[in-house]
Amino acid sequence: MNTVAIIAGGTIGLILKKKMPERVTIIYFQAVGLFTLAIGISMVVKMEDILIVVGSLAVGSLLGEWLNIEAGAERMSNYLKQRFRIGSEKFSEGLVTAFLLFCIGSMTIVGTIQEGTGGSPDLLYTKSLMDFFSAMLLASAFGFGVVVSALLVFVFQGALTLLAMYAGSFFTNEIILGLTSVGGILLIGLGFNILEIKKIRIMNMLPALVIVALLLWWF
After folding, report:
1. What is the pLDDT of residues 48-62, one digit of tens each?
2. How far is CA 102 from CA 20, 133, 136, 195, 201, in A?
3. Sign of CA pseudo-dihedral 80, 11, 154, 97
């Protein structure tokens, strides 16, 4: 349902994008950047275990830089653009932005845990409706990469749901809050990228999400 909602919203956004003059596109990007900052700040407000969050960001960033995830993602996106003849200049940026907005947050984690443990999927339905409108906004600014991100959402949320079926107790409230806090910080950095304030290699920081979950589980 979430995947279909993103594809539908993204498709409508692509249709709207073709009708936008350049000056409208510029201010639209600025609005998306501010929206991303606002989402990130709202996720960080309730942050706890600050030392673990900071440590996770430091270790995760070093690991991501060593693996050079961003360069690999860039090569993959360029391959997809050539393979399917996608002309969007901001394909990679749209893909990363949409993935982080759609997948990193307490609604995603709590919703998949509820569904995976046999609970109600209502939270994911609510998220799907929100993502539908967000995909319209993002696709009209970034293009086709937002639609492609729906496949990553399917894999990511599907994996979390399956994990919750067999290890639901792993996702404690502390781990969910830690993931939300780190995700919020990454979204703030992403907002800086969109507003062209400072270029930050957000993709190379993604391992911090795994590190923070493991550290909170360990301690």
Report:
1. 889 999 999 999 999
2. 24, 11, 13, 19, 19
3. positive
* Residue 19 DSSP symbol: T
Q: Which residue type, as a one-letter code, is found at position 198?
A: K
C-alpha dihedral, 123 to 52 to 153 to 89, nearest 10° = 130
pLDDT of residue 64: 92
In which residue ranges of the chain is pLDDT below 70?
A: 80-81, 83-89
Task: Specify the long-range contacts of residues 64-73, CB closer than 8 Å, at least 24 apart.
Answer: 64/201, 64/203, 64/204, 64/205, 64/206, 64/207, 64/208, 65/201, 65/204, 67/204, 67/207, 68/204, 69/203, 69/204, 69/206, 69/207, 70/201, 70/202, 70/203, 70/204, 73/203
pLDDT value of position 81:
66
Eight-class DSSP state of 25: H
Domain ranges for the chain, please list them: 2-218
Residue 157 · residue 2 · CB < 8 Å: yes
- H helices present in the chain, as ranges: 2-17, 22-44, 50-67, 69-83, 91-103, 106-116, 122-142, 145-167, 173-194, 207-218
